[in-house]
Amino acid sequence: MRFTQFFIRTQKEWPRDEESANAKFLHRGGFVEKIGAGIHAFLPLGLRVLDKINRVIREEMNAIGASELLLPALIPKKYWEATDRWNVPILYKSTDSSGQEYGLGFTHEEVLTPILKRRIQSFRDLPTALYQIQTKFRDEPRARFGLIRGKEFTMKDLYSFHADAKDLERFYWTVADAYKKIFSRLELPVRVVEAAGGDFTKEYTHEFQVLVPAGEDTIFYCEACDFAQNKEIANVAALDTCPKCARAKIKESNGIEVGNIFRLGTKFSEAANLVYKDSAGKEQLVVMGSYGIGPSRAMGAIVELNHDDAGIRWPKEAAPFRIHLIALPGGEKQADAAYKYFAEQGVDVLYDDRNDATPGEKLTDADLIGIPVRIIASTRTANMVEVTMRDEKPFPFQSIEAAVLAVQRYYAR
Ligand code: ATP
Ligand code: MG
Questions:
Q1: How far is CA 115 from the centre of its chain?
Q2: Predicted structure pTM score
Q3: What tens digit of pLDDT does each residue of 30-70 get?
Q4: Whose CA is nearest to atom 31 of ligand 1?
Q5: Ligand 1 center to residue 258 CA distance, Å?
Q6: Shared-domain flag, residues 92 and 237
Q7: Which domain holds residue 299?
Q8: Among 297, 299, 302, which residue has the most ligand 1 atoms within 8 Å of its CB, making it the best to mutate?
Q9: Is residue 237 within 8 Å of residue 220, measured between CB atoms?
């Protein structure tokens, strides 16, 4: 993609009234624009990042046998009434010109369960799992921290349907493993934290928390084992001996919840009378689970964790492009040739081909945009290019062909 064709506008000034790193750097790099409290526009560069994150999520959801669908955001009142959630405070409501009332989806059990009711007959139809990646609306009283808490945000929501609690349990931990893979690919170190299930369950649910100062949750965790609890339910406190391994003292940290998994049990299947016939022909309630990830929140969390004074340092799988190719004075022809070759090889590259920007401006923009691999052509590199890969030793100048191979190896690691 040529810089001169793609819409990129980095910003010279920090945003006013923003404290969080993700709000500041996503603004400066031209990834998002704040439209109102908790409402953001994703500019082309930001949309590319979101799409990369979504791609990782989709791959891991498809790998556990979940099918993607897309549910509406505009949901008639009767659906919310059926589960007694019409008066949930975070529900945005709307009335159309004929007086019909709607709620904007903040989660989608209400819509999906009746769809399944018309399509599940017997135990042979189970288990099944469906997910979507969609915009959610929540009237959050304290929308803040850039993408971390929005009134409009994206969610991957997965719902699973089972014949019994045992099968739900099996799938619950399958999803937990898939989530670990997703966050590891996005280089988000997560703790799997025990949390309260709210209205749904007396058992713990599990949150996937990134431990960073910018987080709104408080997490107690053990450094010697995997024990971790959200303060909201905790039966430990900081400096206690770990109740699980007894080998270390409990620590306290703020956390950002990037995902969570819930056992819903039969709450929603009871409301919709979602039943199936077991092998004896007897009607049984379907047992459900629901599982969320916030891709837009994850994008904010990635920036909280990965930035320096000069800009964002995107993890490989979330970077808007794989290579940032820069033509500096004297290197224009060589950079053009490299761009052409990269395009032929199908390499995802951003090519700064501007002739009205100074070298300093180009390099500052490259820092703000934060792509892990930078390739520069200049008088100095002659018929070679200079390849810089984050966290790797500098290379001697290389031919264009060798540069592509090196980049492919870097991304395969
Ligand atoms: P929180 O405790 O942060 O309010 P939640 O427990 O209500 O979130 P869910 O309803 O389970 O979250 O939503 C699933 C996922 O969607 C969360 O794990 C989070 O990553 C994301 N998410 C929830 N609320 C928001 C929001 N207001 N802005 C951005 N992402 C959100
Ligand atoms: Mg929560």
A1: 27
A2: 0.97
A3: 999 999 999 999 999 999 999 999 999 999 999 999 999 99
A4: 294
A5: 7
A6: yes
A7: 21-305
A8: 297
A9: yes
